[in-house]
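thoughts on both lines:
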Amino acid sequence: TIQNYALVDNSEIWLNTNSEVQYLSDFKTERKVSLSGEAFFDVKANKDNPFIIELNSSDFIKVVGTSFNVVNRDDEFDLTVYSGKVEFHALKRVINLTKGDRIVKVNGSFTKIRNTDKNVSSWKNKELIFDNILLNKALTQIGKHYSVKIKLDKSIDISKCYLRSKYTQESITDVMLELSKFFVMEYKQSESTILISKLKCN
C-alpha cells in the first residue's frame, strides 16, 4: 500500500509499496531522512535549513524546496525532478538538476537525461498516459504499475505497434480487456503474471 506522510515542516512524502523512510533528525535544526525504495517528495522551501535524503553511506540528495520522485534500491537508482532545484551528491561530485531533469543509474554509472516519461510517478497519481508510444515500452510500464510480469511469446513481434491511451484507477483486468480491443491479442492472466500468446497490430 502507498502511504502519505505530512512532516513537521509541512513537507509531504508519498511512499510506494515495499519502501521505507527513516527520520534522521528532529526537523528543527536539521531536516534529514534516509530512503530505501521509492518515494515522491514535496519539500517546503527553507533556505536556512536544506532538506537531505541519505541514499547510502556516501550519496545523498540535497534540496531547499522542490518536488521529485526517487527510486533508491540496491540495483536501481532513478531521480526525476518536477519542480525547483535538486542537488545530487554522488561519487564525490555534485550534479544540479531542475524541473524536467532526470538521473538514472546505468551499469553502475549515473546518467543525466531530460525526462520524457509521463509515467514515472504513475504509482502516486494512479494514472498511466500513453501518447503514441511503443507497445513494448507501454507493457513494461503497465507491468511495473500493476506489479505483474507481462510475458510475450517469443514468436510475437510488436516492434511496430504503438499505444495511445490513458488509464486512471482501472484494474489490470480492465486494461488488458481494452488492449485486446486495440490489438488482435490472446492472453492468460493469473494473479502475478500475464502470458500473451498472440498479438498483432491492427
Notes: The mean pLDDT is 93. The chain has three helices and 15 strands. Helices lie at 122-125, 135-146, 172-182.
